[in-house]
Write a structure and sequence with these properties.
The complex is a heterodimer of chains A (275) and B (275). Chain A is an all-alpha fold. Chain A has a domain of 173 residues: Orthogonal Bundle (MetI-like fold), CATH 1.10.3720.10. Chain A is built from eleven helices and no strands. The two termini of chain A are 56 Å apart. Chain B starts with a strand and ends with a helix. Chain B has a six-stranded mixed beta sheet, with helices on both faces. Chain B has a four-stranded antiparallel beta sheet with strand order 2-1-4-5, covered by helices on one side. Chain B contains ten helices and ten strands. Chain B has a single domain, classed as P-loop containing nucleotide triphosphate hydrolases (Rossmann fold, 3-Layer(aba) Sandwich), CATH 3.40.50. Chain B is of the alpha/beta class. In chain B, 36% of the residues lie in helices and 21% in strands. Classes of the chains: A mainly alpha (275), B alpha/beta (275).
């Protein structure tokens, strides 16, 4: 029975029975040409890199030496270590706090559906400008201006946090359903009332989530900006490397791992509860 | 009380959504605006409260020329124009009560809105209205936890909280099932009569329009092509509005001896509950 059922398909003239998947680049000449080009470039790039194998060869035993001198980690200067860690945490907290505050006006200005186009463009340009410099570059800049120490670190991370949180906030507001804004406008509410009655309740949970995420990121970054002299545990770490205190370096690295772990855990816990 | 004169709207893309719309309504009643998608129904009601700025023409409500108002005056005028939407457009993360009270945003101060401290008479009215629309006990429920019909009831309560002279209703039932649609329309019509508002309803469902509206305005390609009572809607009229189609099943069968709105409702009832 089933066999006849299968065979009973109509044998009328049919459309071509071939099928194929859609290739990213349909033209085979272009497709294979591009792959060949990429391979040629890779070979060329490798040849110009001028990898000095002898230096790698002599470096390997040095690496072994550093690792040997790292263990066991030396926690004897724990007060210096603790001070560095605390300073890093303070840098991260302060930067996150000011970043959160500054991000609100900037984020609102960066939302296309809220502000006139010129303001939007200025805010977006600011986003791009601050994003185009890595934190290390901004940190070097602030260290040059304000000297070594945590102030440069805080300022660097404020810039980065503000930019990050503001951008996320702006995107979040732009993705809000237009209808809600329309409905509140239709009641005769002014712009400030629209902000506090419609935008703030809708955007607040994600804003807090992003800010907590940024706090976690700031804890990690605060250890990095220290390396160029912007305070915190990173600065202590950089000093140990220059003085060949590798056992102390390892102690610091272990503490950084612990700190980042705690930050990550805290951030996930808070963001989990915000939903 | 509402007079629309030569209302014209051309979008920046060049689309002429309204090509000189004229009509006048003298007393509070329910007016349905029917017409195919793209005929300018939504644009028309949004031009009345200037959520969309009309290109030219005049909208007069209770002797006030809405089109000539400054932004500040417009906000004041909008308080008298409640709006109800197809997608309900509640602020999802706020409670039913907060959403209902948002209808008072045009009346209260910024700080009252910020602290959610509405005058006791507003709160009392909100409780009363929410009970009236059938949402007793839902006050502290978040809007995103409600069903479509319930959301639309909140939308109706919010609009009526404004103490409006005019209700602008944009496809109130297009996202609802047939039974809920009828319940919502019935509620809307009853409340319009109770509050003495003029109610303009954009509606796709010609049957619903005939069932509930005192007057029907047909729009086609941005022009009024029909303006009359429900009984005057014939197959020819529908062909004028929507184009050629077999309309015989769409036209409401007018029951004998029909005089009053309520009786009309009862006559129709058997078809409301088919199962």
């Amino acid at each position: 029975m089933t066999a006849t059922h299968q065979n009973s398909a109509p044998e009328a003239p049919q459309a071509p029975r071939e099928w194929h998947t859609i290739k990213l680049i349909e033209n085979p000449t272009y497709r294979y040409g591009l792959i060949a080009l990429a391979m040629v470039y890779f070979a060329f790039a490798l040849s110009t890199l001028d990898v000095d194998w002898s230096r790698i060869y002599t470096g390997l035993p040095r690496a072994g030496d550093i690792f040997v001198r790292m263990v066991p980690p030396d926690f004897s200067r724990w007060s210096l270590l603790l001070r560095g860690i605390l300073e890093s945490v303070q840098i991260a907290l302060a930067a996150s706090f000011f970043g959160m505050i500054l991000a609100i006006p900037l984020g609102l200005c960066g939302a296309r559906n809220l502000v006139p186009r010129p303001i939007y463009l200025v805010a977006r340009t600011l986003f791009v400008l601050t994003r185009s410099f890595h934190e290390i570059i901004i940190a070097i800049f602030f260290v040059k201006i304000f000297g070594f120490g945590p102030l440069a670190g805080v300022l660097t991370l404020i810039v980065a946090s503000t930019n990050f949180i503001a951008k996320m906030l702006a995107e979040d507001i732009e993705n809000m359903p237009a209808g809600q804004l329309e409905a509140i406008r239709a009641t005769g509410a002014s712009f400030p009332k629209l902000l506090i009655y419609c935008i703030s309740p809708q955007a607040l949970p994600r804003y807090l989530g992003v800010s907590i995420y940024r706090l976690d990121a700031n804890i990690r970054h605060s250890t990095v900006v220290g390396i160029v002299g912007a305070g915190g545990i990173g600065q202590v770490l950089a000093a140990t490397f220059t003085r060949y205190d590798y056992d102390f370096s390892l102690a610091i690295l272990i503490c950084i791992v612990g700190l980042v772990f705690i930050g990550e855990f805290f951030s996930n816990w808070v963001r989990g509860r915000l939903r | 009380m509402l007079t629309i004169t030569d209302l014209l709207k051309t979008y920046p893309t060049g689309t002429a959504a309204l090509k000189g719309v004229n009509f006048s309504i003298d007393e509070p009643q329910v007016v349905a605006i029917i017409g195919p998608s793209g005929s300018g129904k939504s644009t028309l009601i949004r031009c009345i409260n200037r959520l969309i700025e009309p290109t030219s023409g005049k909208v007069e409500l209770e002797g006030t020329n809405i089109t000539a108002l400054s932004h500040r005056q417009l906000r004041k005028a909008r308080r008298r124009m409640g709006m109800i939407f197809q997608e309900y457009n509640l602020v999802e993360r706020l409670t039913v009560m907060e959403n209902a009270l948002s209808g008072r945003l045009g009346y209260v101060s910024f700080w009252q809105a910020f602290r959610r401290k509405f005058p006791p008479e507003d709160v009392a009215k909100a409780f009363q209205l929410l009970d009236r629309v059938g949402l007793e006990g839902y006050h502290n429920t978040r809007a995103d936890a409600l069903s479509g019909g319930e959301r639309q009831r909140v939308g109706i309560a919010r609009a009526l909280m404004q103490n409006p002279a005019l209700l602008l209703v944009d496809e109130p039932t297009a996202s609802l099932d047939p039974k809920t649609s009828r319940q919502v329309m019935r509620l809307l019509v009853e409340l319009s009569k109770e509050f003495g508002t003029l109610t303009l309803v954009n509606i796709h469902d010609v049957g619903l329009a005939q069932m509930f509206a005192d007057r029907i305005i047909g729009l086609r390609l941005g022009e009024v092509v029909f303006d009359g009572t429900a009984d005057q809607v014939t197959e020819q009229v529908l062909t004028d509005i929507y184009g050629e189609e077999d309309w015989s099943a769409t036209i409401r069968k007018i029951p004998e001896g029909e005089d009053e709105e309520d009786e009309d409702d009862k006559e129709i009832k058997p078809t409301i509950h088919p199962n």
